[in-house]
Amino acid sequence: MQSPAPAIDYALLARSIKRWARDLGFADVGISGVDLAQDETHLQRWLADGHHGEMDYMARHGAKRSRPDELEPGTQRVISVRMDYAPPDIDRAWSVIEDGELGYISRYTLGRDYHKLLRQRLQRLADRIRAEIGDFGYRAYVDSAPVLEKALARNAGLGWIGKHTVLIHRRAGSYFFLGELYTDLPLPVDTPASEHCGSCRRCLDVCPTQAIVAPYRLDARRCISYLTIELKGSIPEELRAPMGNRIFGCDDCQLVCPWNKFAQATTEPDFAPRHQLDGSKLVELFAWTEEEFLQRTEGMAIRRTGYEGWLRNIAVALGNAPRSDAVRAALLARADHPSDLVREHVAWALTRQDEMR
């Protein structure tokens, strides 16, 4: 007769999981349950207001996004992890934003695409758990499924959701990635993080396009990250000038957050900036061929915008750049581009340059 499997000490296992996760390079780890009822109400209101814009996938999966046990049947707990990504010279970001000849790219995307890296680490964490207790049910997610990752991380004690809708950790700021391991293990849960934004509204005031329409409410249709990454068509004209030189994403609301004085610089080599994209000249980036774009962004999240979107975004930034012969020449070189989208934004940029005379 086979001996019965030994009982699992879940409290001990939870402590071990946290130790193993840190050994794998995660800055922090926490465990939460699956009740997201209040967050589901917030999500439904956000969708009803149309604040998701063209991100139809936000509504496509119904309640599965806010009900982990429906997305992955049998889920009892969610192990949330975070990994810091800030480069050591994060304060240099402002100098790039203030130099209209340079292209600003969100700091999270300057290195290797984080999705694969975090997912591989989560798989290694799951393998370590299996080695300890045997087979168990789990699924790893890193922006790869309908998951309310910030709400789950908050409930796991990894930070609170700030007024800009980004997760903030009291001792680490907000420059970090999140990942989740859905599991059927009845682990003890951690205490949810409390909110510490107080009366501060720096993020609301600094937003170039006023996308944070109220504390904790983001209208993605106005957000530069949405406009430069998610939106595939024409950027609304009234939002082009406020975009400045931001060609992929936007960090302003995080850069002004006082809690980011505690931000930790990444120790992950894969997140180091590539190809000097942390401050390259717009005219040089605009001259890239599609082959150069694909080669230089290989393995990076920047590819999400596609080459056409890349040129569209840079055309807007060149329209906002200080007037110069080099800027005008760069735009004229793309004036007859095969893409209607690119030609439209180049024409707008040339007109804006002329208006600076």
TrEMBL record:
The 4Fe-4S ferredoxin-type domain, residue ranges: 185-217
GO terms under cellular component: cytoplasm
Residues bound to cob(II)alamin: R65, D143, L167, L178, S225, C250, D251
Pathway: tRNA modification; tRNA-queuosine biosynthesis
Record: residues binding [4Fe-4S] cluster 1: C197, C200, C203, C257
Cofactor annotation remark: Binds 2 [4Fe-4S] clusters per monomer.
Keywords carried by this UniProt record: 4Fe-4S, Cobalamin, Cobalt, Cytoplasm, Iron, Iron-sulfur, Metal-binding, Oxidoreductase, Queuosine biosynthesis, tRNA processing
Sites where the protein binds tRNA: K232
EC number: 1.17.99.6
Subcellular compartments: Cytoplasm
Catalytic activity: epoxyqueuosine(34) in tRNA + AH2 = queuosine(34) in tRNA + A + H2O
Segments traversing the membrane: none
Entry similarity comment: Belongs to the QueG family.
HAMAP family documented for this protein: QueG
Name of the molecule in the record: Epoxyqueuosine reductase
Species annotation: Dyella thiooxydans
The encoding gene: queG
